[in-house]
Amino acid sequence: MKLLWSFLFLSCLCLGFLGHGYSEKPEVVKIGSIFSFNSVIGKVAKIAIEEAVKDVNSNPDILVGTRLQVSMQNSNCSGFMGMVEALRFMEKDIVGIIGPQCSVVAHMISHMANELRVPLLSFAVTDPVMSPLQFPYFIRTSQSDLYQMEAIASIVDLYGWKEVIAVFVDDDYGRNGVAALNDKLASRRLRITYKAGLHPDNAVNKNEIMNMLIKIMLLQPRIIVIHVYSELGFAVFKEAKYLGMMGNGYVWIATDWLSTTLDSSSPLPSERLESIQGALVLRPHTPDSKLKREFFARWRKNPDAPLALHTYGLYAYDSVMLLARALDKYFKHGGKISFSNDSMLDALGKSGSLNLEAMTVFDGGEALLKDILGTHMVGLTGQLQFTTDRSRIRPAYDIINVAGTGVRQIGYWSNHSGLSVLPPESLTKPNMSASQKLRHVIWPGEAFQKPRGWAFSNNGKELKIGVPRRVSYKEFVSQIRGTEYMFKGFCIDVFTAAVNLLPYAVPVKFIPYGNGKENPSYTHMVEMITSGNFDGVVGDIAIVTNRTKIVDFTQPYAASGLVVVAPFKKLNSGAWAFLRPFNRLMWAVTACCFLFVGIVVWILEHRINDEFRGPPKRQCVTILWFSFSTMFFAHRENTVSTLGRLVLIIWLFVVLIINSSYTASLTSILTVQQLSSPIKGIDSLREMDDRIGYQVGSFAERYLRDELNISESRLVPLGSPEAYAKALKDGPRKGGVAAIVDERPYVELFLSSNCAYRIVGQEFTKSGWGFAFPRDSPLAIDLSTAILELAENGDLQRIHDKWLMKNACTLENAELESDRLHLKSFWGLFLICGVACVLALFLYFLQIIRQLYNGKPSEEEEDAIGRENHDSSSLRSTRLQRFLSLMDEKEDVSKAGSKKRKIDGSVNDNSVSRHSRRLDSFNSVNPLD
């Protein structure tokens, strides 16, 4: 019995501790919801929230023993009404609010939520400026427009468009969304050229819309992003179709307001559907799942659902589920529902009649907020989890195309994978830029080709095109005498021909630039584009680095580059011109090779060829004669040995190449006029102290001064071809210049009529001439395509020949000195010949040594062997004499004597006499004791 009482006491004690750790759950938890009941989003959200509350209350795993109760209020997207309804909530012990729907309401009541510590879970506010730093109790369960605008910028960048027009509703939602779009476009070097704001009132003003669209028609960009509410958006599309703006050339990109309407009101009325044909639409992406499919099936069976389910209905459902799971976690952590009065509100309430003392602060608001942010769940919209800045992880959008009687999905965008034709959840790695793509699009006007995105404005305004008023080289561009705005020349004809190839009219007005007394500064002229004085510049404008930093150039229509022009003097051929084809080393090596080959052939032929035998004097003459007669293939001696013939064949091939090269070089020296100048190019010109001329207005002055560090005191401005000729003729000693640095097109035109000067050295810069336009100008791109077409069809060359084809001087531009032939051009041939000679000699001597050691020793050798101990050098001397005699004797005689010695040990008379003479010689050198 005592044991039983002890057990009961311990049980009560444990229950007491447990009861102290876990607060008692309330039977009912009240939450609020505020949105616009009559909107497309609100009609669906109302049913979705009710379904979510039912699912929470019927789920045995969530809020066990506690029932969730929701109270809904209609804000009608009015800031004032939203504030009033929120105040009503604060009198009902609300622990959380689902909503609001509109940005203007969110901005109003978020301040109230901060003070009263009531979390706001917004399922539809996409305004990107709702910062958690300013509004810590505001939680966005949908996706921010920051990501939607980044998706639009990706689409614009994908198709290569540069400028867009933004049509938006002029409230927090519209302005902040367009501001985010502008930032995202700017990060890609794109821009919004025009922003058209519309009044946010529900009453659609047709005249306002019409006037706005007419202004847009007069602008150049044809990419229009529309970020409004549904009724206002359809009104814009209706008037745009009436004005023909839903046809070819236009691109309309609508934000998720249109996809929400399409999803909830499918099919649309035919009039509305017809007005949005070809538009691109973004829709928040929700991954496919079994949970989502089951909920869609329930929705279709729900008789109370007035519209089809759309994405924001799914967000509303998940918001309720998230709050319910967070409350469940809150209660499990010991949280309880309690409210307290705010002293400041009490004081204000007692001093007036606003009844502010009725509003209370939720004591557990901060803890519940942490539980909401820390709750991870998989809902109808996929993984619901927040980043550090309280955005949903992996935001993504569907990209759809309105075509025919419905819509086509053409791809996806996510901040993880960019643009893709595959769902973002199926991509594990971020896509590279090369893989960014979408499916085929049917554009407005049922066009299948990607619109250019730009058209010349149809406002009757002419482009102000700056043209240099040149005073020299007027073949390139010149003002027609007696006119103010008319020009002619090579550059003008190219520009006119390119403009005529454009698929649209471009009215232009040429504005002369310069005083007409000297060529203007082209750099200053280009800078006037950035200041807005010119819409473009046409002329002989060089494309150089400092200019490309401030303007865009077209494709170059003429090649250019800086060259050096200098006077020259003629070189006479002279009496010793025949020696000039080869340099000294080449002559020396060639002569040595002739002699070396002659000696090699003599060695190989001496024993078996009578033509290479005889007295020493005769043999020396034979070697020299044979060597140099091979130069003309006139050698009379025949080669008999195989090795000799091989060497001769290789040598004759070498001689053939040398003869041909010598003849060609000598012909060039004697027939082509040779030129000479002390200046060899820009490098030698820099090392000198003489003055250098340049054309007035050219970038050559800046290049010589800044890039090549040539003193400005050495630079002389020259304004005409006549000034060029005079300065070069006078030279630096008479106040002229040593050389002129200018662009090649000018120099070629100058040299066509001044034959006393030539280009020296190589072109030391590479550039071209183009037409200049403001940065990111689509006209520059279209004209570049037109210039390429002119080059391909030959029109560009015909224009060049018309203006710049002049009678050239009789003397062609040549190098200052004829290139001599050097050994490096022939060392391969000499190497082959040398290797062949050495190899032939090696084989020949190997054969001789073999005969020397295999033959029977002579009597002298036998005597020397016997005396080896007495005189060791005798044997070596005897063998050397034997080797030399073997080299000198004829091969057939040597063989015959060897055979007879083997048969009978006797020799013929010639061998005996020759042997006797050798013996006498041997005895005279080595007398016997």
Automatic annotation (TrEMBL):
Keywords from the UniProt entry: Disulfide bond, Glycoprotein, Ion channel, Ion transport, Ligand-gated ion channel, Membrane, Receptor, Signal, Transmembrane, Transmembrane helix, Transport
Region (Disordered): 890-929
Membrane topology: Multi-pass membrane protein
Residues in the signal sequence: 1-23
InterPro entries: ANF_lig-bd_rcpt, GABAb_receptor_plant_PBP1, Glu/Gly-bd, Ionotropic_Glu_rcpt, Iontro_rcpt_C, Iontropic_Glu_rcpt_pln, Peripla_BP_I
Domain Ionotropic glutamate receptor C-terminal: 464-806
Gene Ontology CC entries for this record: membrane
Disulfide bonds: C755-C809
Subcellular location: Membrane
Membrane-spanning ranges: 585-604, 646-670, 826-846
PANTHER family xref list: IONOTROPIC GLUTAMATE RECEPTOR
Family: Belongs to the glutamate-gated ion channel (TC 1.A.10.1) family.
Stated name of the protein: Glutamate receptor
Native species: Brassica cretica
